Recover the amino acids of this structure.
């Protein structure tokens, strides 16, 4: 019989990773399962743990009751104390239920009421929760999630005795693996000379290879040397898809959501304490701050080139007090002309003329040439129109790398 499973929130800052629990379910539970799905949820929720990802597993089993027991055994043996684990089981495909699909979409883009999630989950399935049970929100969202755009991530897991210790990965081998770009991406950050495929947490993940094709993420994985992984698994994910982004006019953006919005640069970029770069965009009467934070490193140099009057579309998460858009990508639509008034130059000798006195115009002392007024010259702009993105070292899980757009990877159908 057909089964659909959602799991969320088994980890804590001290360890574990719900993807590992999913990999264990597939390995240990009887049944035949499709590749697991990793669904990243709204990254702007303050109470999330780390990456805010939930897992779905679908497949065929012979005994539903036994399936549930075996899954819960795996979940219980791995979940961290204090995590708000939620597990959702269903014999019907929750992706076919429009209400659950809406819940799923809302969980990626907005804020969902946990009680509402439990009510909805119970209508068409079974819910088991631990702690506050908030994990049911993500468990149902993952199980009911339909991909419009999809990427892959191969996750390699560490042997248990290494959990919590420093990861041993041959850096050069990661650069070799990165040659599969653009079919794999965000393994390294070329501009900053850093490898980015390892987490910084004490979780079981050794590294993750993100990309478009199963053979490509596998091939990249095979090139990586160092600590021998315990196992690996390829997940289908909404990472790198911009599924969290909502198009909004500047006057209707809200905190805890991620938006795409357009305006004119009003206050020019300024660097504040901590190295963060802020500027203000304006549309109609609305003005909102936009930020390129310190971890975005060299991206801030691009942002610093913005000038008053530039027309831009920004994509990013919205935070509160004061309302600020945390830029993930920016499209410079129009670079404004920038001019300044200078003393005219002499047509004879080419030197700058001097003022001939108040309201007397300008003159060249040597050649006796005159000119009635200052002249306007254009200041060359260093910025060109087009898209710019934060580097891989600072990219959010859900943020779509520009290369996926350039290669049309984001328009392929599932
Ligand atoms: Zn002259």
């Amino acid at each position: 019989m057909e089964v659909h499973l959602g799991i969320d929130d088994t980890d804590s800052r001290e360890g574990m990773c719900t993807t590992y629990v999913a990999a264990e379910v597939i390995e240990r539970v009887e049944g035949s399962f499709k590749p697991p799905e990793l669904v990243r949820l709204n990254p702007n929720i303050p109470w999330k743990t780390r990456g805010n990802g939930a897992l779905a597993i679908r497949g065929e089993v012979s005994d539903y009751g036994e399936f549930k027991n075996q899954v819960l055994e795996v979940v219980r043996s791995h979940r961290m104390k204090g995590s708000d684990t939620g597990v959702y089981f269903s014999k019907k495909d929750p992706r076919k239920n429009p209400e659950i699909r809406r819940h799923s979409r809302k969980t990626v883009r907005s804020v969902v009421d946990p009680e509402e999630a439990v009510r909805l989950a119970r209508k068409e399935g079974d819910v088991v929760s631990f702690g506050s049970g908030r994990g049911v929100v993500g468990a149902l969202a993952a199980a009911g999630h339909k991909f419009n755009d999809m990427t892959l991530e191969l996750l390699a897991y560490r042997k248990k005795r290494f959990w919590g210790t420093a990861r041993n990965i041959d850096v050069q081998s990661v650069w070799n693996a990165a040659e599969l770009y653009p079919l794999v991406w965000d393994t390294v950050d070329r501009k900053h000379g850093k490898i980015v495929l390892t987490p910084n947490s004490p979780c079981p993940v050794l590294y993750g290879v993100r990309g478009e094709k199963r053979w490509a993420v596998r091939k990249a994985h095979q090139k990586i040397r160092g600590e021998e992984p315990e196992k690996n698994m390829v997940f289908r994910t909404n990472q790198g898809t911009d599924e969290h982004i909502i198009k909004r006019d500047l006057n209707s953006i809200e905190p805890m959501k991620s938006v795409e919005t357009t305006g004119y640069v009003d206050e020019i970029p300024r660097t504040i304490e901590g190295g963060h770069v802020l500027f203000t965009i304006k549309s109609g009467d609305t003005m909102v701050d936009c930020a390129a934070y310190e971890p975005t490193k060299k991206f801030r140099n691009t942002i610093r080139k913005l000038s008053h009057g530039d027309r831009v579309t920004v994509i990013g998460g919205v935070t509160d007090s004061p309302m600020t858009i945390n830029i993930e990508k920016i499209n410079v639509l129009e670079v404004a002309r920038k001019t300044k008034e200078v003393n005219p130059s002499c047509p004879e000798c080419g030197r700058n003329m001097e003022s001939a006195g108040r309201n007397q115009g300008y003159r060249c002392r040597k050649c006796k040439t005159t000119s009635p007024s200052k002249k306007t010259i254009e200041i060359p702009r260093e910025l060109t129109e087009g898209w710019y993105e934060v580097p891989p070292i600072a990219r959010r899980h859900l943020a779509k790398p520009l290369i996926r757009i350039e290669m049309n990877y984001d328009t392929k159908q599932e």
Summary: Residues 346, 348-349, 351, 364, 366-367, 369 surround zinc ion (CB under 6 Å). The first helix runs from residue 18 to 28. The chain has four domains: 2-143, 151-237, 245-336+381-397, 338-379. The chain has a mean pLDDT of 95.
